[in-house]
Amino acid sequence: MRMFKINMIFRNLLKYFRSISIGKKFLAVSYIQIFIPIILIGVLSFRISSDLIFRKYVGYTTDVIKTARLRIVDKINELNSITQDILYQTELYNILDKSMKNVDYYDDVASLTNKFRKIILGHIDIQSIGVFTKDKKLCVVDNTSKEVGLDEIIPNQISFEKVYNIAAKGNGKPVWYVALQKNDKESKVAVLITRCINNPQTLKFEGILVVMINTELFDKTFSELVAEKSQAIAVVGDSIFISTKGEINKEKILKLMYQVKNKNGVVTYTSNEYIVNILPIKHVDWYIVTSIPVKILFRDIDKLRMWLIALCFLSFVITSAMSLMLSMDFLKPINAIVEATKRIRKGEYKTIENIDRKDELGILIDNFNSMVVKINHLINSIYKEQITRKEAELKVLQTQLNPHFLFNILESINWLAQLNGVSQISDVVIALSKLLEVNLKEEKFLTLEEEIKYITSYVSILKINFGEENLKLEVDVDRKALKLRIPKLLVQPLVENSIFHGIRPRGFGKIFVGGYIWNDKLAIIVKDDGVGISPEKLKGIRKDLEDDNEIFLEQEGRSYTRIGLVNVLKRLKLIYGKDASFSIESLPQRGTTIKIEILLDALSRAVEESIQELSGEGEEEDV
């Protein structure tokens, strides 16, 4: 059911898409092709950039806290070594021994104090050094700074019992301890190194060594490594923040630290508010912590997002404008073609103008214009042919009588001529009957054999005026050519022109009519030995034959000779086009030769088209 609904939705969308115009389709496809890549590129770019910035920050922070750990570990090792050097002092053991025996140890204290002072002056990271006896009495305390020293921390802030317990955990090794100093004004952090003092000879416990560290050591380490003001960094030991730079959520950091106690390397935690990196310092069970607000870290990402949005919008506007211009460039010729086809449907055969293109649309418009020109030419040609045919039919109708009545009259004349023994009148009547028979036929095409018979009858009638011996007719036609069908009365006007304009001026002559087939063409030759045509007049006739303007029998200012020849040529062009040719040659007092050549394929094609036209007219009449 779900698939059916999806298919229906898809079909409706497809149906709607097919119903809209090409312009809307083009714009829709263009916007889809523009919008989707821009969104994908923008989203992917933002995502990749965000990941790169995040990884870059994590990598940078990791390097920072690792470097800080190395420095702190170096300091721890250095300070542990100092405590070891203190244990090598003989005065220390003399003081502890005399203190246990209640012997005066003032001179030894003075000597050891000087050595402690040198150590403190040589190491600014050491704030105070103290030695405590086994019975928890202060033996030596040296505090040369203005800061709070061990004499104020022990036992006021940290009891002797606790200090001894812390030192005992190291079993002779240095133990780092972080304590929180509390007073009325503020709370400060104290970092102590405690170590048991064992007699080197008896290895018995005789006291403890306590070294107080200056916490500015860690502040200097962070200030050199951290350049980002918004980033917070801290060293945490014994759940106390020893040194902190920047604002940091201490409660959340302490909760996260409990989760990474047994882990190695940098551990990163990401929330909606902060990104926290934690690195354990295994030597002293401390932690280095960095924290940065997410909004600060992604401040550059937000700028990148805004730039991407602006660039995407700008790209969308530019590409949309280009797509709109391109679509208008395509739609203009398409709309011109559509409007032209609408005009053609209304019967207005006009070409498309003012479109200067060389692409496929330009080729389509050129072909369309060429088609319109050909249609106009064909319409005009058919129109001319119909006018010519109607005029010929009108002329025939104007001169013809009722066929049956006319043939009855001619038959009566023939019977009277034979009855009275006038054979010449009988021959003329028979010839005239054959002429009328051909003229009255409705067929457009006759065989060449029928055309020759018509010419023979026509010449036999004219011999009455010229005399039997003064007008001769010679016919030479191939047997195959006799069966070919040509337009009715195509040759007769040529014979008529030869008789009246070539032979009659001199009073006698011979007409030759030939029909031959060669090179897939039918050649018809009409030749006379009359007076011929002068070069000037022949040039004018040829010019008229080459003129494509409409020529009618009613035209004035032209001789009957030209009219007959032009009409024959016009019929050839209308029926056969370029498949037929017409030529005329003449010399004064030597005669004139007219030659017609028609392709055999064109002859058969014209007859078939005529048959189809007649059948089409018959069907229309039936309807």
UniProtKB/TrEMBL annotation:
PROSITE patterns cross-referenced by the UniProt entry: HAMP
Top-level taxon of origin: Bacteria
Main location: membrane
GO molecular function: kinase activity
InterPro entries, per the entry: Bact_2-comp_sensor_kinase, HAMP_dom, HATPase_C_sf, HATPase_dom, Sig_transdc_His_kin_internal
Location in the cell: Membrane
UniProt entry tagged with the keyword Transferase: yes
HAMP domain location: 328-380
Keywords: Kinase, Membrane, Phosphoprotein, Transferase, Transmembrane, Transmembrane helix
Residues passing through the membrane, by range: 26-46, 306-326
UniProt name for this protein: Histidine kinase
